[in-house]
Amino acid sequence: MTEPSSSSAAAAGGLIPDLPDDVAVRCIARVPRSHHPFLSLVSRSWRSLLRSPLLSAVRSHLAVSDSPVIALNLRSPTDQSLWFLLDPLLVGRSGGTKKSPPPLRLPPPPLSAIGSACAALGPAIFLLGGSVSGIPSRAVQVFDARLRVWSIGPRMSAARQFAAAAVLGGRIYAIGGCLPPDDAWAESLDPAGGGGWAVVPSPLLIREKWMHGCAVLGGRILAVVDRGGVVYDPAAPPGEASWGPVPPVLDNGWRGRAAVVGGILYSYDFLGKIRGYDEESNEWKQVEGVEKELPKFLCGATLANLGGLLCLLWERKDLASGNKEMVIGWAGIEVLKTVDGRLRGSILWQEPLVLEAPRDSSIAHCVALEL
Q: Which positions make up the signal peptide (predicted)?
Protein backbone atom coordinates (compact mmCIF):
# COMPACT_ATOMS: atom_id res chain seq x y z
CA MET A 1 0.00 0.00 0.00
CA THR A 2 1.31 3.43 -0.90
CA GLU A 3 1.33 5.84 2.03
CA PRO A 4 -0.72 9.02 1.55
CA SER A 5 1.27 12.05 0.49
CA SER A 6 1.94 14.68 3.16
CA SER A 7 2.75 17.47 0.69
CA SER A 8 -0.09 19.63 2.03
CA ALA A 9 1.26 19.35 5.56
CA ALA A 10 4.80 20.05 4.38
CA ALA A 11 3.60 23.23 2.73
CA ALA A 12 2.40 24.43 6.13
CA GLY A 13 5.90 23.81 7.47
CA GLY A 14 7.35 22.99 10.89
CA LEU A 15 4.68 20.86 12.48
CA ILE A 16 7.18 19.47 14.99
CA PRO A 17 10.66 21.09 15.29
CA ASP A 18 13.56 18.99 13.99
CA LEU A 19 11.22 16.45 12.39
CA PRO A 20 10.27 16.19 8.71
CA ASP A 21 6.60 16.95 8.29
CA ASP A 22 5.81 13.50 6.88
CA VAL A 23 7.17 11.96 10.11
CA ALA A 24 5.32 14.56 12.22
CA VAL A 25 2.03 13.72 10.51
CA ARG A 26 2.48 10.02 11.34
CA CYS A 27 3.15 10.93 14.99
CA ILE A 28 0.08 13.15 15.25
CA ALA A 29 -2.07 10.54 13.49
CA ARG A 30 -1.45 8.08 16.33
CA VAL A 31 -2.99 10.40 18.96
CA PRO A 32 -6.59 9.41 19.90
CA ARG A 33 -9.34 11.69 18.56
CA SER A 34 -10.38 12.55 22.13
CA HIS A 35 -7.16 14.59 22.41
CA HIS A 36 -7.58 16.48 19.14
CA PRO A 37 -9.21 19.57 20.74
CA PHE A 38 -6.04 20.05 22.79
CA LEU A 39 -3.78 19.43 19.80
CA SER A 40 -5.67 22.05 17.80
CA LEU A 41 -4.44 24.69 20.26
CA VAL A 42 -0.79 24.09 19.32
CA SER A 43 -0.82 26.12 16.08
CA ARG A 44 -2.86 26.95 13.00
CA SER A 45 -1.00 24.33 10.99
CA TRP A 46 -1.89 21.64 13.55
CA ARG A 47 -5.51 22.76 13.59
CA SER A 48 -5.61 22.64 9.78
CA LEU A 49 -4.06 19.17 9.74
CA LEU A 50 -6.49 17.79 12.33
CA ARG A 51 -9.45 18.74 10.12
CA SER A 52 -7.91 17.62 6.86
CA PRO A 53 -8.55 14.46 4.82
CA LEU A 54 -4.79 13.82 4.95
CA LEU A 55 -4.85 12.93 8.64
CA SER A 56 -7.76 10.52 8.12
CA ALA A 57 -5.92 8.88 5.24
CA VAL A 58 -2.74 8.46 7.29
CA ARG A 59 -4.70 7.06 10.24
CA SER A 60 -6.28 4.55 7.87
CA HIS A 61 -2.86 3.60 6.46
CA LEU A 62 -1.52 3.07 9.99
CA ALA A 63 -4.65 1.10 10.99
CA VAL A 64 -5.36 3.57 13.80
CA SER A 65 -8.99 3.43 14.85
CA ASP A 66 -11.23 4.94 17.51
CA SER A 67 -14.89 4.59 18.36
CA PRO A 68 -17.35 5.23 15.51
CA VAL A 69 -18.69 8.66 14.59
CA ILE A 70 -22.09 9.88 13.45
CA ALA A 71 -22.70 11.23 9.96
CA LEU A 72 -25.73 13.50 10.09
CA ASN A 73 -27.59 14.70 7.01
CA LEU A 74 -29.90 17.72 7.09
CA ARG A 75 -32.29 18.90 4.43
CA SER A 76 -32.47 22.71 4.33
CA PRO A 77 -35.66 24.66 3.52
CA THR A 78 -34.23 25.17 0.01
CA ASP A 79 -33.62 21.40 -0.36
CA GLN A 80 -29.86 21.59 0.09
CA SER A 81 -28.25 18.40 1.36
CA LEU A 82 -25.99 19.30 4.31
CA TRP A 83 -23.69 16.74 5.95
CA PHE A 84 -21.88 16.90 9.31
CA LEU A 85 -19.58 14.61 11.28
CA LEU A 86 -20.38 14.26 15.01
CA ASP A 87 -17.69 12.75 17.19
CA PRO A 88 -18.70 11.28 20.58
CA LEU A 89 -15.08 11.40 21.77
CA LEU A 90 -15.22 15.19 21.65
CA VAL A 91 -18.34 15.58 23.78
CA GLY A 92 -17.94 18.10 26.62
CA ARG A 93 -18.58 16.02 29.74
CA SER A 94 -17.44 18.31 32.55
CA GLY A 95 -20.78 19.15 34.11
CA GLY A 96 -21.85 21.33 31.23
CA THR A 97 -18.99 23.81 31.71
CA LYS A 98 -17.39 22.85 28.40
CA LYS A 99 -19.00 22.69 25.00
CA SER A 100 -18.04 20.26 22.29
CA PRO A 101 -16.20 21.63 19.25
CA PRO A 102 -18.59 22.45 16.40
CA PRO A 103 -19.35 19.44 14.19
CA LEU A 104 -17.24 19.12 11.07
CA ARG A 105 -19.05 20.26 7.93
CA LEU A 106 -18.63 17.74 5.11
CA PRO A 107 -18.67 18.49 1.38
CA PRO A 108 -22.07 18.15 -0.30
CA PRO A 109 -22.81 15.20 -2.63
CA PRO A 110 -22.42 15.78 -6.39
CA LEU A 111 -26.16 15.32 -6.95
CA SER A 112 -28.70 17.08 -4.76
CA ALA A 113 -31.35 14.35 -4.61
CA ILE A 114 -34.53 14.41 -2.53
CA GLY A 115 -35.69 11.18 -0.91
CA SER A 116 -32.45 9.20 -1.24
CA ALA A 117 -32.04 6.03 0.78
CA CYS A 118 -28.92 5.86 2.95
CA ALA A 119 -26.71 3.06 4.28
CA ALA A 120 -23.23 2.92 5.82
CA LEU A 121 -20.53 0.29 5.46
CA GLY A 122 -17.27 0.86 7.36
CA PRO A 123 -16.14 4.44 6.60
CA ALA A 124 -18.41 4.79 3.54
CA ILE A 125 -21.84 6.34 3.11
CA PHE A 126 -24.01 5.07 0.25
CA LEU A 127 -26.76 7.39 -1.02
CA LEU A 128 -29.16 5.47 -3.22
CA GLY A 129 -31.39 7.14 -5.78
CA GLY A 130 -33.68 9.98 -4.85
CA SER A 131 -35.43 12.55 -6.98
CA VAL A 132 -33.16 14.74 -9.13
CA SER A 133 -35.00 17.66 -10.76
CA GLY A 134 -38.26 15.89 -9.96
CA ILE A 135 -37.30 12.56 -11.58
CA PRO A 136 -36.40 9.40 -9.57
CA SER A 137 -32.78 8.43 -10.13
CA ARG A 138 -30.70 5.24 -10.36
CA ALA A 139 -27.62 7.11 -9.13
CA VAL A 140 -25.44 5.80 -6.30
CA GLN A 141 -23.29 8.36 -4.51
CA VAL A 142 -20.51 7.15 -2.19
CA PHE A 143 -18.75 9.23 0.46
CA ASP A 144 -15.41 8.12 1.92
CA ALA A 145 -15.31 9.64 5.41
CA ARG A 146 -11.57 9.06 5.73
CA LEU A 147 -10.65 10.90 2.55
CA ARG A 148 -13.77 13.12 2.76
CA VAL A 149 -14.53 12.84 -0.92
CA TRP A 150 -17.64 11.82 -2.88
CA SER A 151 -17.61 9.49 -5.85
CA ILE A 152 -20.23 7.92 -8.12
CA GLY A 153 -20.85 4.21 -7.64
CA PRO A 154 -22.49 1.57 -9.88
CA ARG A 155 -25.97 2.64 -10.94
CA MET A 156 -28.92 0.66 -9.66
CA SER A 157 -31.13 -1.35 -11.99
CA ALA A 158 -34.21 0.66 -10.98
CA ALA A 159 -34.78 4.36 -10.36
CA ARG A 160 -35.82 4.87 -6.73
CA GLN A 161 -37.18 7.51 -4.39
CA PHE A 162 -37.89 6.98 -0.67
CA ALA A 163 -36.59 3.42 -0.80
CA ALA A 164 -35.31 1.30 2.09
CA ALA A 165 -31.58 0.62 2.39
CA ALA A 166 -29.68 -1.83 4.57
CA VAL A 167 -26.28 -3.49 4.95
CA LEU A 168 -26.09 -7.23 5.62
CA GLY A 169 -23.17 -9.59 5.08
CA GLY A 170 -21.07 -6.87 3.45
CA ARG A 171 -23.73 -6.19 0.80
CA ILE A 172 -25.82 -3.06 0.25
CA TYR A 173 -29.53 -3.71 -0.25
CA ALA A 174 -32.03 -1.35 -1.90
CA ILE A 175 -35.70 -2.22 -1.46
CA GLY A 176 -38.78 -0.53 -2.90
CA GLY A 177 -39.13 3.10 -3.88
CA CYS A 178 -39.80 2.21 -7.52
CA LEU A 179 -42.95 1.71 -9.53
CA PRO A 180 -44.37 -1.84 -9.67
CA PRO A 181 -44.18 -4.30 -11.26
CA ASP A 182 -40.46 -3.59 -11.67
CA ASP A 183 -38.53 -6.90 -11.33
CA ALA A 184 -35.69 -4.97 -9.65
CA TRP A 185 -37.93 -3.93 -6.74
CA ALA A 186 -35.13 -5.30 -4.54
CA GLU A 187 -31.46 -5.54 -5.48
CA SER A 188 -28.07 -5.78 -3.79
CA LEU A 189 -24.47 -4.71 -4.37
CA ASP A 190 -21.17 -6.11 -3.13
CA PRO A 191 -18.94 -2.98 -2.98
CA ALA A 192 -15.81 -5.09 -2.48
CA GLY A 193 -16.61 -7.39 -5.41
CA GLY A 194 -16.22 -4.79 -8.12
CA GLY A 195 -19.39 -5.84 -9.93
CA GLY A 196 -22.78 -4.25 -10.37
CA TRP A 197 -26.16 -4.57 -8.72
CA ALA A 198 -27.87 -7.97 -8.65
CA VAL A 199 -31.65 -8.31 -8.63
CA VAL A 200 -33.07 -9.97 -5.51
CA PRO A 201 -36.13 -12.00 -6.59
CA SER A 202 -39.27 -10.81 -4.83
CA PRO A 203 -42.95 -11.81 -4.97
CA LEU A 204 -45.12 -9.55 -7.11
CA LEU A 205 -47.55 -9.26 -4.20
CA ILE A 206 -45.19 -7.12 -2.08
CA ARG A 207 -43.93 -4.77 -4.79
CA GLU A 208 -46.60 -2.14 -4.22
CA LYS A 209 -45.26 -1.35 -0.76
CA TRP A 210 -43.48 1.98 -0.20
CA MET A 211 -40.99 1.88 2.64
CA HIS A 212 -40.45 4.32 5.48
CA GLY A 213 -38.15 2.32 7.74
CA CYS A 214 -35.47 -0.35 7.50
CA ALA A 215 -33.26 -2.26 9.91
CA VAL A 216 -31.31 -5.51 10.21
CA LEU A 217 -32.38 -7.77 13.08
CA GLY A 218 -31.33 -11.37 13.64
CA GLY A 219 -29.61 -11.62 10.25
CA ARG A 220 -32.75 -10.54 8.39
CA ILE A 221 -33.75 -7.25 6.78
CA LEU A 222 -36.93 -5.62 8.05
CA ALA A 223 -38.54 -3.15 5.65
CA VAL A 224 -41.54 -1.43 7.18
CA VAL A 225 -44.42 0.59 5.76
CA ASP A 226 -47.38 2.12 7.64
CA ARG A 227 -48.80 -1.39 7.90
CA GLY A 228 -47.77 -4.70 6.43
CA GLY A 229 -43.96 -4.60 6.63
CA VAL A 230 -41.86 -7.34 5.09
CA VAL A 231 -38.88 -9.44 6.14
CA TYR A 232 -36.13 -10.64 3.81
CA ASP A 233 -33.93 -13.55 4.86
CA PRO A 234 -30.96 -14.01 2.49
CA ALA A 235 -29.98 -17.22 4.31
CA ALA A 236 -33.33 -18.95 3.77
CA PRO A 237 -32.81 -22.59 2.68
CA PRO A 238 -33.53 -23.42 -0.96
CA GLY A 239 -37.20 -24.08 -1.51
CA GLU A 240 -38.28 -21.90 1.43
CA ALA A 241 -39.67 -18.39 1.08
CA SER A 242 -37.03 -15.73 1.64
CA TRP A 243 -39.71 -13.01 1.94
CA GLY A 244 -42.43 -12.88 4.55
CA PRO A 245 -44.43 -10.57 6.80
CA VAL A 246 -42.98 -8.97 9.92
CA PRO A 247 -44.51 -10.14 13.21
CA PRO A 248 -47.78 -8.24 13.87
CA VAL A 249 -46.53 -6.97 17.24
CA LEU A 250 -43.44 -5.47 15.61
CA ASP A 251 -45.47 -4.09 12.72
CA ASN A 252 -47.93 -2.31 15.02
CA GLY A 253 -45.28 -0.78 17.25
CA TRP A 254 -42.63 0.48 14.81
CA ARG A 255 -42.91 4.21 14.27
CA GLY A 256 -40.45 6.26 12.25
CA ARG A 257 -36.71 5.68 12.27
CA ALA A 258 -35.23 2.83 14.25
CA ALA A 259 -31.89 1.30 15.20
CA VAL A 260 -30.78 -2.12 16.40
CA VAL A 261 -28.43 -2.28 19.40
CA GLY A 262 -27.56 -5.52 21.16
CA GLY A 263 -30.26 -7.47 19.34
CA ILE A 264 -33.04 -5.05 20.37
CA LEU A 265 -34.78 -2.81 17.81
CA TYR A 266 -35.37 0.67 19.23
CA SER A 267 -37.92 3.18 18.00
CA TYR A 268 -39.23 6.54 19.19
CA ASP A 269 -43.03 6.45 19.33
CA PHE A 270 -45.73 9.10 18.98
CA LEU A 271 -46.18 9.21 22.78
CA GLY A 272 -42.65 10.52 23.23
CA LYS A 273 -41.19 7.24 24.50
CA ILE A 274 -38.16 5.22 23.43
CA ARG A 275 -39.23 1.62 23.12
CA GLY A 276 -37.36 -1.53 22.24
CA TYR A 277 -38.66 -4.59 20.43
CA ASP A 278 -37.37 -7.80 22.02
CA GLU A 279 -37.41 -10.53 19.37
CA GLU A 280 -37.09 -13.29 21.97
CA SER A 281 -40.28 -12.33 23.81
CA ASN A 282 -41.97 -10.74 20.75
CA GLU A 283 -42.94 -7.60 22.65
CA TRP A 284 -42.22 -3.89 22.84
CA LYS A 285 -40.75 -2.59 26.10
CA GLN A 286 -40.29 1.00 27.19
CA VAL A 287 -36.72 2.07 27.93
CA GLU A 288 -36.93 3.07 31.59
CA GLY A 289 -34.85 5.62 33.45
CA VAL A 290 -34.40 8.24 30.74
CA GLU A 291 -37.76 10.00 30.50
CA LYS A 292 -36.98 12.64 33.16
CA GLU A 293 -33.68 13.65 31.53
CA LEU A 294 -34.96 13.99 27.96
CA PRO A 295 -37.48 16.50 26.58
CA LYS A 296 -41.00 15.10 26.55
CA PHE A 297 -41.40 15.20 22.77
CA LEU A 298 -38.46 15.01 20.38
CA CYS A 299 -39.06 16.51 16.95
CA GLY A 300 -37.41 14.56 14.13
CA ALA A 301 -36.09 11.93 16.55
CA THR A 302 -33.45 9.71 14.92
CA LEU A 303 -31.63 6.70 16.35
CA ALA A 304 -28.31 5.01 15.55
CA ASN A 305 -26.10 2.25 16.92
CA LEU A 306 -22.93 4.03 18.03
CA GLY A 307 -20.52 1.24 18.90
CA GLY A 308 -23.04 -0.52 21.16
CA LEU A 309 -24.60 2.67 22.53
CA LEU A 310 -28.00 3.95 21.51
CA CYS A 311 -27.41 7.37 19.98
CA LEU A 312 -30.44 9.67 19.91
CA LEU A 313 -30.64 12.90 17.89
CA TRP A 314 -33.52 15.35 17.55
CA GLU A 315 -34.36 18.80 16.22
CA ARG A 316 -34.43 21.47 18.92
CA LYS A 317 -36.88 24.30 18.42
CA ASP A 318 -35.07 27.03 20.37
CA LEU A 319 -37.08 29.80 18.75
CA ALA A 320 -36.83 32.11 21.75
CA SER A 321 -33.03 32.17 21.52
CA GLY A 322 -33.09 34.03 18.21
CA ASN A 323 -30.46 31.65 16.83
CA LYS A 324 -30.58 31.63 13.04
CA GLU A 325 -28.67 28.36 12.79
CA MET A 326 -29.94 24.82 13.24
CA VAL A 327 -29.70 23.45 16.78
CA ILE A 328 -29.98 19.74 17.44
CA GLY A 329 -29.86 17.76 20.62
CA TRP A 330 -27.99 14.51 20.89
CA ALA A 331 -27.56 11.96 23.63
CA GLY A 332 -25.67 8.74 24.17
CA ILE A 333 -27.67 6.11 26.03
CA GLU A 334 -26.48 2.83 27.50
CA VAL A 335 -29.36 0.34 27.67
CA LEU A 336 -29.12 -2.82 29.71
CA LYS A 337 -31.56 -5.70 29.94
CA THR A 338 -32.45 -6.52 33.54
CA VAL A 339 -32.76 -10.04 34.90
CA ASP A 340 -36.54 -9.81 34.62
CA GLY A 341 -36.34 -8.69 30.97
CA ARG A 342 -36.93 -4.94 31.36
CA LEU A 343 -34.89 -2.36 29.44
CA ARG A 344 -33.08 0.10 31.69
CA GLY A 345 -31.30 3.10 30.16
CA SER A 346 -28.79 5.59 31.48
CA ILE A 347 -27.75 8.74 29.64
CA LEU A 348 -23.98 9.06 29.27
CA TRP A 349 -24.17 12.51 27.69
CA GLN A 350 -26.71 14.97 26.42
CA GLU A 351 -26.02 18.36 24.87
CA PRO A 352 -27.12 20.79 22.16
CA LEU A 353 -25.07 21.29 19.00
CA VAL A 354 -25.26 24.36 16.77
CA LEU A 355 -24.85 23.40 13.12
CA GLU A 356 -23.88 25.55 10.18
CA ALA A 357 -27.34 25.18 8.65
CA PRO A 358 -30.57 27.20 8.44
CA ARG A 359 -32.72 26.95 11.58
CA ASP A 360 -35.68 25.38 9.76
CA SER A 361 -33.64 22.46 8.39
CA SER A 362 -34.74 18.91 9.18
CA ILE A 363 -32.92 15.65 9.88
CA ALA A 364 -32.90 13.39 6.82
CA HIS A 365 -30.33 10.68 7.65
CA CYS A 366 -28.18 9.58 10.57
CA VAL A 367 -25.67 6.74 10.25
CA ALA A 368 -22.68 5.51 12.24
CA LEU A 369 -19.30 5.27 10.49
CA GLU A 370 -16.09 3.47 11.39
CA LEU A 371 -13.03 5.64 10.82
A: none
- Single-letter amino acid code for the residue at 185: W
Decide: residue 25, CB within 10 A, 0-12 exposed, 13-18 middle, 19+ buried: buried
Average pLDDT, the chain: 86
Q: Could you read off the pLDDT of 129-183 as tens digits, one per residue?
A: 999 989 999 999 999 988 889 999 999 999 999 999 999 999 999 999 887 666 8
What is the domain-level CATH number for residue 257? 2.120.10.80
pTM reported for the whole predicted model: 0.84
**Spatial CA neighbour of 169 closest among 221, 231, 128:** 221
| 53 and 131 part of one domain | no
- pLDDT level of residue 98 (50, 70, 90 thresholds): low
pLDDT for res 253 = 86
Burial of 15 (0-12, 13-18, 19+ CB in 10 A): buried
Predicted pLDDT of residue 16 = 85
How many domains does the structure of the chain reveal? 2
